[in-house]
Amino acid sequence: MKLGISKVLYSVIILVLYLVSGILLIVKNLFWQEVPDTGMTIFGVVVIGYGLFRGYRAYKLYQTSKENEDEVE
Predict the structure, then answer these.
(1) Domain boundaries in the chain?
(2) DSSP-based helix, strand, coil % in the chain, nearest 5
């Protein structure tokens, strides 16, 4: 199974979007003023955690595909 560069690039872009979104939610000065600070911080941490999880999952998929590719050669 060959993993295309577009799939890797897509995963990296999504990872960056999640991380930036989470950071902006924690900073919150640019977003909703009426939401309590604690709720926004918790949600920001969850978004960052999910982004890191997606990044880890994409990395493992990339490593697995490289190992399979090496075995075929």
Answers:
(1) 5-72
(2) 80, 0, 20
pTM beyond 0.85, yes or no: no
- Distance, CA of 36 to CA of 9 (rounded, Å): 35
Higher pLDDT: 52 or 40? It is 52
Q: Which helix (H) or strand (E) holds 68?
A: helix 37-72
- Does residue 73 have a pLDDT over 70? no
What does the DSSP 8-state code read for residue 28?
Answer: -
The contacts found for 23-26 with CB under 8 angstroms, 24 or more apart, are 23/48
